[in-house]
Design a protein that fits this description.
The chain has 316 residues and is an alpha+beta fold. The chain is built from four helices and 20 strands. The chain has two domains: 156 residues, Sandwich (Jelly Rolls); 131 residues, Cyclophilin, CATH 2.40.100.10. Strands 12-19-16-17-14-13-20 form a seven-stranded mixed beta barrel.
Length: 316
């Protein structure tokens, strides 16, 4: 029996395979990558009965238009997303996020757009038939790493499924993507490179997310942050969420596909508990930062993990 597959009729703006990412490869210059919004990624897999870390499709702003050929399968979409299901009979109905649907050969999924957010996730039962590179099927388009030759999807490509004609078990989660007033951070290793006034500005004024934002980094615009020591330092290791400030005084937040070393002073690091909400901020959004201690950041991450697990446990 031939395998089922999705044909990409429209690829969307930035559509790639993602999972939980690559571990312990910073020493050869390879970041974690993986799903930008981890919670929505995990929920999408849970809704189709998958193990939480199986490969899903991540899309940004506008998603793909996909047509299934072959057997039946279960699908789910998470995020704040507008999408339609187009049956082979040509009947169209609006889909709802956070619930599973059964589709069959000839049906189409039209992921129209995200709503005042950036990323959404599309999962299928038993996942996709994709290769793993260094323990992950995540695509890093900057480094050309991952399946699909490290590239985002193109029109007319075929994406094969691992299984077909799987048993359908409808699942649903009542979940609303919330926003927070502040993006919390801990002080960076070069926090004292910045003037007293710059530190005050950073924790009190709003910054705007610029159009120069992608999976690698988020550039912000606002009142310039004055560096009183040195605007360039010897290159050091970087981590996801670290906030660098180059000579122009505008912060840059390193995101999932970031470079692993950099020579700009680091004023702070976004806490892991706030990362999902950070990456969903669209260009033009305003960010206000709030300083927290390392101990509080660890507690907040514990609460984040506990809340995420509770949501996964609610999916029936």
């Amino acid at each position: 029996m031939s395998k089922s597959y999705f044909e990409i009729i429209r690829p969307g703006i930035n559509t790639t395979f993602q999972d939980t990412g690559r571990n312990n490869l910073y020493y050869i210059g390879i970041p974690f990558s993986g799903a930008m919004d981890k919670r929505n990624f995990l929920i999408s897999n849970a809704l189709v009965g998958n193990k939480f870390d199986l490969t899903s499709i991540e899309f940004a702003y506008q998603g793909p238009l996909l047509k299934l050929t072959g057997g039946k399968t279960s699908i789910a979409i998470t995020g704040d997303v507008n999408f339609n299901i187009i049956r082979k009979s040509s009947k169209i109905f609006q889909g709802e996020c956070y619930q599973s649907y059964e589709i069959e050969s000839g049906d189409q999924i039209d992921i129209l757009s995200t709503n005042k957010s950036v990323y959404g996730y599309f999962s299928v039962k038993d996942s996709f038939d994709v290769e793993s590179f260094w323990g992950s099927s995540s695509i890093n388009t900057r480094a050309k790493i991952g399946p699909n030759e490290g590239e985002k999807f193109l029109k007319n490509q075929k994406i094969y499924l691992k299984n077909q004609n799987s048993h359908f078990n409808k699942k649903k989660l009542n979940y609303l993507n919330s926003k927070i007033e502040y993006i919390r951070f801990i002080e960076g290793t070069n926090f004292d490179y910045f003037s007293k006034n710059a530190k005050k500005i950073f924790s009190s004024e709003k910054f705007i997310v610029s159009k120069l934002t992608d999976r690698m980094g988020m550039r912000l615009e606002g009142t310039k942050l004055e560096n009183i020591i040195n605007t360039n330092i010897k290159s050091e290791g970087l981590i996801k969420g670290v906030i660098q400030v180059p000579a122009d005084g505008n912060p840059i937040i390193m995101l999932s596909d970031h470079g692993t070393i950099g020579g700009y002073p680091k004023i702070g690091v976004v806490i892991s508990a706030d990362y999902d909400k950070l990456v969903q901020l669209t260009p033009g959004s305003k960010i206000k930062f709030k300083s927290v201690s390392l101990a509080d950041a660890e507690k907040l991450y514990g609460f984040y993990n506990m809340e995420t697990q509770n949501l996964l446990n609610q999916i029936k």
